[in-house]
Amino acid sequence: MRHAFVLALGAMLSFSACETVPVTGRSQVMLFSEEEVVKLADQAHVKFMAEAQQKGTIVTASDPSAGRDVAQINTVARRIIDAAGLGSRYKWEIIVLRDPSANASVMPNAKMVVHTGLLPITRTDAGLAVVLGHEVGHVVARHSAERLSQSVLLETGTQVAASTVAANPALQALTAGALGLGAQFGVLMPYSRAHESEADHLGLIFMAKAGYDPAEAIALWERMEKAGGSRTPEFLSTHPNPETRRAQIREWLPDAQRYYKDRSLPLPR
């Protein structure tokens, strides 16, 4: 069964493309092109915008109660996007939502969503740059496409392994369940934590090149931790725990500070 599982994954890997994440240089397996993932994101974005418009939660610059917030978000976002070298690569759209949750996201099709509830925690332009740099880092590293590729590989491997015990339905169900749990906690979650850490790393450099002090990242994540309350153990979480995150940021700060002191430095290849 294990042999069949490995063979299935090996076969799919042999037909997949290997790419390298900009800046960090990490190798990644890709089964989906950028165009395919953008098309999927476009479909999700249309549905998202329809729901947001129906709820009336979209905030514009003309809103007298939040116009200043919208202007701040747009200014910081554009500087981060340009620092990451994506200003002319995509048609960016920045959406601000009136929502109390402290959240922001960027889809692979360059649609950025920022909740107004994030601003009391970010407080400053530099604090906001930490979060938006992180989210743009996910786009630069193509984490969405990589996660989708991992899911397809694991699903195929699980199906092949389960089919080797097809003569025993009880054993087949047990095998599928065990492999599913193993994939979730042994592969997908660690990869998700790795993606979050990589986005932190990329975000530090992007915010520094955009002119924001990367040292603000430690204070920002401390405030985010306090706002979040109790947390899930790291091995069951898709994000690294706060202590791990801060330790990693301290390790990356000296390099990021170089770009803050000299914004003309080119991004590492």
Walk me through the structure.
With 269 residues, the protein is an alpha+beta fold. The chain has 9 helices and 6 strands. It has one domain. The chain has helices at 2-14, 34-55, 67-83, 119-122, 125-140, 143-163, 169-209, 216-228, 242-261, and strands spanning 17-20, 27-30, 58-59, 93-97, 104-106, 111-115. The strands form 2 sheets. The chain has a 4-stranded mixed β-sheet. A two-stranded antiparallel sheet has the order 1-2. Helix 5 packs across helix 7 and helix 6 packs antiparallel against helix 7. Mean pLDDT is 82; it is low at 174-190 and 232-236.
Output the radius of gyration: 20 Å
Q: How many domain modules?
A: 1
Low-pLDDT parts are 174-190, 232-236
Mean pLDDT across residues: 82
The major beta sheet can be summarized as: 4 strands, mixed
**Overall helicity:** 55-70%
One letter per element, helices H and strands E, the order comes to: HEEHEHEEEHHHHHH
Give the N-terminus to C-terminus distance in angstroms. 41 Å
The total of helices stands at 9
What's the overall geometry? globular
Structural class: alpha+beta
What is the beta-strand fraction?
5-15%
DSSP, total strands: 6
Strand line-up across the major sheet: 3-4-6-5
